[in-house]
């Protein structure tokens, strides 16, 4: 027997058995509905205030605003809908919405009564509160923070048709004086960065007085910048707050939809403010049959010389008065009188009366399937072709087109990068291997040239452009390079470094998948690129290379991510302290490292058996905040006033009810060897009240690689797949989560090769009761679950959610959520089977649960919803009917109208309860639920569901 290495991670470094502590009750699903926990964290600009929402899974919540480094704390009821707190830039005020209470919301849903949010404005110095009713949106006035703008919801009596005016009142409330000013019929509003200017539009009934206005917030002066019978929208200030752009929509008798113009405002000076209006229709250089797109946000170039916007098709109205033949340009056909006499009189047929076939034509040459075109129809109709208009010479340039649809304008707006996959799209949709021709577009001249032909896209094949907009990094065949847009010169960045830049853990059918590219330093001098462990700082010409992490590979430690803590940072500013996630791939310890300003070595500040959430920094102060959690401790907010995160202070607590219930006692990290000879790991979570030497019923939960989440907290809840680890651990189950490593053309067999040895290794620890082990997975995990039970009888029970069951039929079915086929997913993504089954029949059949169905001896709970847009419903039906024909114990649950995961709360609750009832029966010997042992007659289903809903309500 192979040696098994174990490490036990225990909260506080101490193990407490059930004989030494009071035995607490296990969580019930009713407890989950009442489970209190925190949502979100916000930090004020000076770092002195923190805010979060808290409350039960179902019910009314409250907002907590607390002094970050003190005990002073305020609490406010906010209704049943989680919301966020917005702090003013000067940190003197906080504002957040208050929704209807849970009971009110439920009653309103029955009566269709409209509900409205309130806004609560809080003065943080004295906790004085001001409430505003029926609020739609709100926002503080930029850096100045002297004002708050509050837009109110429309009146219940307001017209609701498509063309009805959308404007409502906006209240400008002066925070210091408490004086307020009303702006009527406001469609949109936006403060500039400084907060001294407010741009807004008016959208009134009958479009009377519609226009664009600018209010000087210091003087109160309002300037009308444009007035028209039009609708104005999409106000976008530039970053400095010195100019803005927006769209203007006018009705036009010649076109079906409104004709849009882009408006550019700059050189702001009251009535002398500069204004540019461009709609393209009267421009001979503008693309024919196109118009400015309402769904693309316009913006200025940094130097305010150019406006960027999108265009799409503009459809003309048909001329109903013209003769249809003439309208189509057909010649008039004359018939002589003799012919008229012989011809039978034909009744006049109106165009609308003609019966047209209702059909779809699928052609093998279509680059996208008809189903994909249907699913993506609205996206295609609204697709925006990036374009520009240069003010000085009034030059329009369409940058994107029907072939080169993807165009990214680079920083500083000197160049744009275009991606054209036209020649490769059809094959890419078939085999999943993505290629593009990449173009460099000079935005001064509009000329474009080919940078790369047939660039492979599956392995990180897009360019990362430097902040100066003059160069980019890219990846080809295991090596990162740079290219200078001005000279065309290319440099090898990583080819001479003695490390691999091919992701060693990516086992998809992708040619040399790339490691992480963190982009460029803010001065554009250095590229920051990862190998599998270390982060490298590489000069743009590739001649200077510095390892920012010092050979961490030897410690199995990696730079696992960069925290973006500075507002509006362009690239990585190496003149400031930079922070990184640190992760040990062997122990799963996690921590934070700092690259001090101007230095070339990341210092690890701490690593331990915890999980650390996103690190944030107060915008105007040296205050840092992050969350910390582990398998037994829910995420808690910490803050430090030191750049090295020294002496962090715990700001809040979480999950206050957890102490009342039994909870997991620890987690073992197991090393084991797969049947393929690979050394892998599995996380074995101990049940509540664990006693050494006693074995427990165990749920094996699978997907792909899961042990990196060893220290993650499992928040009690009702997930879309039914399984919640925290709930099962509290109820006396152990939970095993193994890693799976795949061999191409053997995804199912790879799962067997990894999962079965992991289960045996877990049994060898003594924790797992080998006679009571179950397996569960959803989607890809559901596939592997349904396959594993055809290959092994090690499991006493199984639950598979939305599983693939026949790889041959699944290969050519539609992925309805996108409209494409599964072929690309099989050949270049998760399916890991290539090429098609006609050339690879043995592999497809060998890895299909349906072809081994006769071997199944394990009872199966199967979930498959009838509107599953990822794994076709027929996959579940095929497996269910096959097992049923063989008289195998199987129950399939289908939630009507649900997609791949369960979305509706009543359905999520129902499935979570049923899954545990099933496992309790199979693994704990509890009575079998009737829906399993006897089934439910269709005529009795309504009574059955009503009874369960009544029971779950606690009555």
Automatic annotation (TrEMBL):
Keywords, in A-Z order: Hydrolase, Signal
UniProt xrefs under SUPFAM superfamilies: alpha/beta-Hydrolases, DPP6 N-terminal domain-like
GO biological process terms on file: proteolysis
GO molecular function list: serine-type endopeptidase activity
The keyword NADP is annotated on this UniProt entry: no
PANTHER family linked to this entry: DIPEPTIDYL PEPTIDASE FAMILY MEMBER 6, SERINE PEPTIDASE S9 FAMILY MEMBER
Annotated protein name in UniProt: S9 family peptidase
Secretion signal, residue range per the UniProt entry: 1-21
Pfam families: Peptidase_S9 (PF00326)
Stored InterPro entries: 6-blade_b-propeller_TolB-like, AB_hydrolase_fold, Peptidase_S9_cat
Ranges of residues in domain Peptidase S9 prolyl oligopeptidase catalytic: 756-924
Protein species of origin: Pedobacter chitinilyticus
């Amino acid at each position: 027997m192979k040696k098994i290495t174990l490490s036990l991670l225990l909260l506080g470094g101490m193990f407490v058995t059930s004989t030494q502590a009071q035995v607490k009750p296990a969580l019930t699903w009713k407890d989950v509905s009442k489970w209190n926990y925190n949502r979100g964290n916000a930090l004020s600009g000076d770092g002195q205030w923190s805010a979060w929402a808290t409350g039960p899974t179902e019910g009314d919540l409250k907002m907590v605003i607390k002094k970050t480094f003190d005990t002073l704390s305020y609490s406010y009821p906010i209704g049943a809908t989680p919301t966020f707190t917005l702090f003013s830039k000067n940190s003197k005020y906080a504002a957040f919405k208050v929704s209807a209470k849970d009971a009110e919301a439920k009653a309103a849903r029955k009566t269709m009564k409209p509900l409205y949010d309130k806004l609560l404005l809080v003065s943080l110095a004295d906790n004085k509160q001001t409430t505003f009713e029926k609020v739609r949106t709100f926002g503080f006035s930029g850096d100045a923070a002297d004002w708050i703008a509050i837009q109110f919801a429309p009146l219940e009596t307001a017209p609701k048709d498509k063309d009805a005016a959308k404007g409502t009142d906006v209240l400008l409330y002066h925070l210091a004086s408490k004086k307020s000013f009303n702006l009527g019929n406001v469609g949109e509003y936006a403060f500039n960065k400084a907060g001294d200017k407010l741009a807004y539009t008016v959208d009134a009934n009958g479009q009377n007085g519609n226009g664009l206005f600018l209010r000087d917030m210091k003087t109160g002066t309002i300037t009308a910048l444009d007035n028209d019978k039009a609708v104005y929208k999409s106000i976008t200030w530039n970053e400095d707050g010195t100019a803005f752009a927006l769209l203007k929509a006018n009705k036009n008798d010649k076109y079906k939809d409104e004709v849009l113009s882009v408006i550019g405002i700059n050189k702001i000076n009251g009535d002398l403010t500069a204004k540019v209006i461009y709609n393209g229709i009267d421009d001979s250089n503008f693309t024919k049959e196109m118009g400015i797109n309402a769904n693309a946000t316009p913006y200025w170039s940094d130097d305010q010389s150019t406006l960027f916007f999108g265009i799409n098709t503009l459809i003309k109205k048909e001329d109903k008065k013209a003769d249809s033949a003439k309208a189509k340009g057909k010649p008039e056909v004359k018939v002589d009188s003799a012919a008229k006499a012989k011809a039978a009189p034909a009744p006049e047929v109106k165009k609308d009366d003609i019966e047209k076939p209702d059909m779809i034509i699928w052609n093998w040459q279509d680059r996208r399937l008809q189903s994909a075109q249907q699913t993506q129809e609205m996206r295609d109709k609204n697709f925006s072709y990036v374009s520009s208009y240069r003010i000085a010479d009034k030059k329009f340039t369409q940058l994107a087109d029907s072939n080169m649809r993807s165009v990214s304008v680079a920083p500083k707006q000197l160049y744009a990068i275009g991606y054209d996959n036209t020649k490769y799209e059809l094959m890419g949709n078939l085999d999943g291997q993505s290629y593009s021709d990449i173009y460099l577009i000079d935005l001064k001249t509009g000329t474009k040239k080919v940078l790369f032909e047939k660039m492979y896209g599956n392995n990180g094949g897009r360019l990362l452009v430097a902040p100066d907009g003059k160069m980019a990094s890219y990846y080809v065949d295991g090596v990162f390079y740079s290219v200078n847009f001005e000279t065309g010169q290319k440099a090898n960045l990583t080819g001479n470094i003695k490390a691999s830049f091919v992701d060693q853990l990516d086992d998809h059918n992708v040619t040399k998948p790339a490691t992480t590219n963190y982009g460029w330093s803010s001065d554009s001098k250095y590229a920051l690129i990862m190998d599998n462990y270390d982060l490298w700082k590489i000069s743009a010409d590739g001649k200077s290379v510095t390892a920012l992490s010092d050979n961490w590979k030897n410690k199995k430690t990696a730079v696992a991510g960069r925290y973006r803590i500075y507002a509006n940072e362009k690239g990585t500013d190496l003149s400031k302290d930079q922070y990184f996630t640190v992760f040990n791939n062997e122990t799963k310890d996690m921590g934070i490292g700092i690259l001090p300003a101007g230095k070339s070595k990341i210092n690890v500040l701490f690593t331990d058996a915890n999980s650390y959430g996103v690190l944030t920094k107060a915008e105007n102060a040296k205050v840092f905040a992050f969350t910390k959690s582990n398998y037994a401790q829910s995420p808690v907010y910490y803050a430090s006033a030191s750049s090295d995160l020294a002496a962090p202070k715990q700001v809040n607590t979480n999950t206050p009810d957890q102490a009342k219930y039994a909870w997991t006692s620890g987690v073992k990290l197991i090393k084991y060897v797969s049947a393929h000879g690979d050394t892998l790991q599995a996380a074995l979570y101990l049940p509540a009240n664990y006693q050494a030497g006693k074995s427990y019923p165990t749920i094996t939960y699978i997907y792909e690689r899961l042990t990196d989440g060893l220290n993650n907290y499992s928040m009690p809840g009702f997930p879309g797949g039914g399984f919640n680890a925290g709930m099962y651990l509290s109820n006396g189950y152990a939970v095993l989560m193994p890693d799976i490593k795949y061999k191409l053309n053997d995804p199912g067999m790879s799962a067997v090769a990894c999962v079965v040895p992991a289960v045996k290794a877990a049994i060898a620890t003594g924790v797992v009761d080998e006679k009571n082990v179950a397996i569960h997975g959803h989607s890809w995990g559901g596939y592997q679950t349904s396959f594993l039970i055809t290959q092994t009888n090690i499991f006493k029970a199984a639950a598979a959610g939305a599983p693939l069951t026949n790889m041959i039929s699944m290969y050519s079915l539609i992925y309805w959520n996108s409209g494409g086929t599964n072929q690309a997913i099989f050949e270049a993504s998760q399916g890991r089977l290539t090429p098609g089954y006609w050339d690879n029949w043995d592999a497809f059949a060998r890895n299909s649960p349906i072809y081994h169905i006769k071997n199944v001896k394990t009872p199966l709970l199967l979930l498959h919803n009838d509107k599953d847009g990822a794994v076709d419903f027929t996959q579940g039906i095929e497996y269910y009917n096959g097992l049923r024909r063989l008289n195998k114990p199987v129950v399939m649950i289908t939630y009507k109208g649900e997609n791949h995961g369960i979305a509706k709360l009543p359905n999520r609750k129902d499935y979570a309860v049923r899954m545990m009832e099933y496992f309790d029966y199979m693994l704990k010997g509890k009575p079998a639920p009737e829906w399993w042992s006897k089934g439910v007659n269709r005529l009795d289903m309504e009574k059955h569901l009503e009874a369960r809903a009544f029971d779950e309500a606690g009555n």
